[in-house]
Amino acid sequence: MPWDAAVAVAALNNAALQQQAILLIGGQELARFCHNDLQRAVLALPGQNVRYTPGRISPQQVGTHRPSYINALLIQSRGVVSVPACDRCRDGHGPFPECRRVQGRFGGACGNCKWPDLAARCSVRDNEDDDDDSSSSSDDDVVVISDDSSSDGGAPPPPPPPGTALAKRFPGPLKKKAPLY
Ligand SMILES: [Zn+2]
Ligand SMILES: [Zn+2]
């Protein structure tokens, strides 16, 4: 396989052989899949192995490095069980049997909602006003998904220097203020 997830493959195969649907990602196994500071910060938290529903997670999915998949695995391996579970988990959505979330990270959404990138619909997510729409989407936007994209268009151009050009081009009409007397 071209992607470098031997650990994940071994964990999945091992789990299938033992009829135990457990991902062995409680340590730093996901380090190669973390591409931004938020993911690395969550990875640094104490972790545990992750239970999943057999057949709902494939090594190929993890190998895509898709941010929602990796973030969901980080949430499940670092999060705590949410009591009660969120609405989507109670309806049986998602690849994990447990509703887990990391408060203050990924909007506080659970892994099952994060997996299909539906964190905004998670009923147990954090409801901080300033962490509403921008954080979850922008987290995903900055992640490099594929390894073979050497350059993805580059960063936007830097803003122009403040004020100087305009000030020179438009000198104030009241430059010479005549004395009153
Ligand atoms: Zn949930
Ligand atoms: Zn949820």
Summarize, please:
With 181 residues, the chain is mostly helical. It contains 8 helices and 4 strands, in the order αβαβααβαβααα.
- Strands across the major sheet, in which order? 1-2
Q: Describe the sheet with the most strands.
A: 2 strands, antiparallel
What small ligands are held by the chains? zinc ion
Helical percentage? 25-40%
Structure description:
With 181 residues, this protein is mainly alpha-helical. It has one domain (6-146). The protein is 32% helix and 4% strand. The protein has eight helices and four strands. A two-stranded antiparallel ribbon has the order 1-2. Strands 3-4 form a two-stranded antiparallel sheet. The longest helix is centred in the first third of the chain and has 12 residues, at 6-17. 33% of the residues are buried. The structure holds zinc ion (ZN) (2 copies). Residues 86, 88-89, 109-110, 112-113, 122, 124 line the site of one zinc ion.
Features:
181 residues; mainly alpha; two-stranded antiparallel sheet; two-stranded antiparallel ribbon; 8 helices; 32% helix; binds zinc ion
